[in-house]
Amino acid sequence: MKIKIILIGQIKESFWREGAAEYLKRLKPYTQIELISVPDEAFPEGITPGQIQAVLRLEGERARREIPPGSFIVALDRQGQQFSSEGIASWLGKRTLAGQSHFTFVIGGTLGLDQELLNESSLRLSLSTLTFPHQMVPLLLLEQIYRAFKIIRNEPYHR
Description:
- By secondary structure, the protein is α/β, with parallel strands linked by helices.
- It has a single domain (2-152), classed as Alpha/beta knot (3-Layer(aba) Sandwich).
- It is 41% helix and 21% strand.
- The chain has a 5-stranded parallel β-sheet.
- Helix 1 (14-27) packs parallel to helix 5 (137-152) and helix 3 (85-97) crosses helix 5.
């Protein structure tokens, strides 16, 4: 199985990068996984709706270039479907049994994700109705993917 996580923007704080690196390391026995960042677009204060759409379109194009052909695209979206940890594990296990072996998770920038990219996604996933710092989201997603593999394999998870 191959999993790619595309982050629009960067993880600037070292403690978030270190956390993400730890989960990437923990996931190595379970899957081939990578976390990549694509540049986000700068925008002015008081950005207009038209400018927002232009920024999202540019960021979406950058993310799209990194999505492997045939990959199951999961867009992180506040309005997306929510799962419990067991539900994510079940979903991932079922998709894998159905023959899906490549997954790409896309995390939007400050303004969210381009509507076209959302439409191209096979699943819109919401991690929570809570609001999290943008840099924290990759770490949360990696932890949930790791937890899903532990659940799928019926392995104990650290407490």
